[in-house]
Design brief:
This protein has 17 helices and 17 strands. It is elongated and about 90 Å long. Helix 1 links the parallel strand 3 and strand 4. Bound molecules: zinc ion. The site of zinc ion has 3 residues, from loops.
Length: about 500
């Protein structure tokens, strides 16, 4: 596939260090609160990327950290530890908070059909490894001790800024958040590898180290976890674009300094989810969660569909109206798939191959998921048999993960889809196969057939017949509600 690489600022042919195998790393959540749907946009797009690579035939080893220590309120190593903040807010221990929000994160992922990575590593589980790498950086002269902390010395690098397409405002992260500069730093971009002089006496989690009792900086955990589980050569590193600086920039600095060779080949950054009032952010206090979407009556997969409709490198504007549109389109798509006959025999392999090639080409162009969605509609319109169409949709869904066939099967059961009445009713204009007859309560095929006959009559402008059927049904205690493309009947 071709993928935009934020490190080279170009779309490139995706290649890996070991042919056929992708070493992939994803920055995981800081588990001090629920993930907001903006964070989850990144995880959805990364999930599609992983699944697309598998679809292309790669074996993928995906690794993710869980940040349960060391991530301070500002990404520039200042402010309070986020975990401690969460624990104080809820009057629980840091470990309870970590457990609760880690579980909540994976529940959200499951609801959004996001696959769990092969390796999920909490930062607190690998402290010895962080100490080993920090010691190595000190030995190699890339780090220094000052005021009790260990810092990475960015002046030792030939170049430090790698991503120049991040928001320039992010460069002033310390200034923006109104926090004082750390006087122990020799250079303004130097960052903490190990803290011992925390200004918070009640820092909950501390470990012994050669530099005193303390805890790791946030950036070092991702480098160490990736080097341990992905090896020395990382093919693909993913994250939200707001992590490009300073987090990913620092990961590159310390990993390459430690390894002595280039580290990660390809950087994939997902852009922000915006609301009408700006970027969605937890620090602003108000944020949207998957639970809230459910409370509002949305299927979480409608949110996945909404995300897939636009490109990952563009900001996406979230509003209830936009989500309503996506949810409506998703529901309609499922209904169209439900109208296909699932018992029609074997698929035509030539048809499946033809559409698969098109999907590979279109989605393989910088993960163009909206073209992937377009492919679904192309299949539905195709002059192919239902079995082949269903096989192709199922195949695409290995990447898109919209539960298309499962949802369609549930829809068939729920809605008692009735096929068009056989010819011989004598209508000049036939109701199309997609016309749905639904019922509330107990099903009754005879009633459904009469309701469909009435729809045919109306379509043929035979209103006298349509009224006659309606009156007959009414006499039997059946009321019909017509909506565009469907009728719903119920016993009253
Ligand atoms: Zn990270």
């Amino acid at each position: 596939m071709y993928l935009y690489n934020s490190a080279t600022h170009k779309k490139e042919l995706f290649q890996t260090h070991t042919p056929g195998r992708v070493e992939m790393y994803t920055c995981g959540p800081t588990v001090y609160h629920f993930a907001h749907i903006g964070n989850l946009r990144s995880y959805i797009m990364e999930d599609v990327l992983e699944k697309f690579l598998r679809y292309e035939g790669y074996e993928v080893n995906r690794v993710m950290n869980i940040t349960d220590v060391g991530h301070l309120a500002s990404d520039a190593d200042t402010g309070e530890d986020k975990m401690l903040k969460g624990a104080k807010r809820e009057n629980k221990s840091v470990m309870d908070i970590a457990k609760f929000y880690t579980d909540a994160f994976f529940d959200d992922c499951a609801a959004l059909n996001i696959k769990t990575p092969e390796v999920v590593q909490p930062a607190t589980g690998l402290i010895d490894e962080f100490i080993r790498v920090v010691s190595g950086l000190l030995d190699k002269g890339y780090a220094y001790e000052a005021g009790g902390n260990v810092y990475f010395d960015t002046s030792k690098l030939d170049h430090y800024y790698v991503f120049n397409d991040h928001d320039e405002e992010d460069l002033a992260v310390g200034v923006r958040e109104g926090v004082e500069e750390d006087a122990n730093k020799r250079g303004k971009n130097d960052f903490v590898l190990w803290f011992t002089k925390s200004k918070f006496e009640d820092q909950a989690l501390k470990w012994d180290s050669p530099w005193g009792v303390g805890y790791p900086g946030w950036h070092i955990e991702c480098s160490c976890i990736s080097m341990k589980f992905n090896g020395e050569y990382l093919d693909l590193h993913c994250g939200g674009v707001d992590n490009a600086f300073p987090h990913h920039t620092n990961e590159i600095a310390q990993s390459e300094a430690y390894l002595g060779h280039p580290w990660c080949r390809q950087w994939f950054h997902v852009h922000h989810l915006n609301t009408n009032s700006g970027k969605m952010s937890k620090s602003k206090g108000e944020f949207l969660t998957v639970s809230l979407l459910k409370d509002w009556g949305y299927d979480p997969l409608a949110y996945r569909f909404f995300c897939l409709q636009s490109h990952y490198r563009k900001g996406l504007v979230f509003s209830r109206e936009n989500l309503d549109n996506a949810a409506g389109a998703y529901k309609k798509l499922i209904r169209r798939i439900a109208a296909l006959n699932p018992d029609q025999g074997a698929a035509d392999p030539a048809v499946v191959r033809q559409y698969r090639e098109r999907f590979l080409e279109l989605v393989g162009n910088d993960l163009n998921t909206s073209m992937g969605i377009t492919c679904l509609y192309d299949v539905l319109k195709a002059p192919a048999d239902d079995a082949s169409k269903l096989a192709v949709l199922d195949d695409f869904d290995r990447v898109l993960s919209l539960s298309l066939l499962e949802q369609a099967a549930a829809e068939r059961q729920k809605l008692a889809v009735v096929q068009p009445a056989p010819s011989g009713i004598g209508l000049g204009s036939r109701v199309e196969g997609e016309y749905l007859v639904r019922h509330k309560g107990e099903p009754d095929p005879e009633i459904s057939a009469l309701v469909l006959q009435r729809a045919h009559a109306k379509q043929a402008k035979n209103f006298a017949e349509a009224d006659r059927i309606r009156d007959e049904l009414k006499a039997r205690g059946i009321e019909i509600t017509d909506r565009p493309g469907e009728s719903v009947w119920e016993r009253i």
